[in-house]
């Protein structure tokens, strides 16, 4: 599989980790989920991220999931593996295992408690040295989760000093000015270009693209929206891209609800036939009858609006 680099762009959808109703890892649904992402037109996927419930998997399950995702993905479909962990040794072992299985790169978030820039830089120095020069790294900037605030100047320093850091997953919020500062500060005489893909459910995607992002890395249950918005934008059809995004916005916003967003996404993926069960491992949210009925109505209204402007709405759905 191709490795990510400083010019990588497009959509690397954040993959769910499918579980059976009894909580067991559902390897069969990994196959159908990968097929759905490929059919949607994604350029790749990111597995074992926040949406992938990575902390709830055992080391053996993580390796089994990586192997199954890799085995199903086409050769030109890049797979990034989230390897963030409290212990550097565990992080490095999982990263090397993923790369041996054919990963396109690994994603590493700062560990909580790195309040000073020197500590953050020291941490990534240690990680990059342990990983070695041939492992492409995605720096995940998600202070809402990690509690670690990182300045644009520090991100630029990291990618300048550690060539393995080739991509930024931008999730800071508010963060448009920061994204723009990173874009304008990389690809210069002294700082190499840094690929930027954006998360946060895609809720700010049009503005992020307009500020210089290369694409999306998030887990919206209709990834064809992410694909089509990015392709329209990159083709110079900026207003058309934003119009399509606006038609999907009710569902994008709905999925971004703190606490139940992952449950809504898994339920939607189940209804689309991508996975068999919407099971989330404990501790985790569950949806009430009112939540399910609300989602049914919102899907119908949004898909009708998207279809009316000629947009793709994707695969099957059941109430």
TrEMBL record:
Pyruvate binds at residue 217. GO terms for cellular component: cytosol. Coiled coil: none annotated. InterPro entries: Aldolase_TIM, DapA-like. It holds the Pfam family DHDPS. Keywords: Lyase. GO terms for molecular function: 4-hydroxy-tetrahydrodipicolinate synthase activity. Belongs to the DapA family. This is 4-hydroxy-tetrahydrodipicolinate synthase.
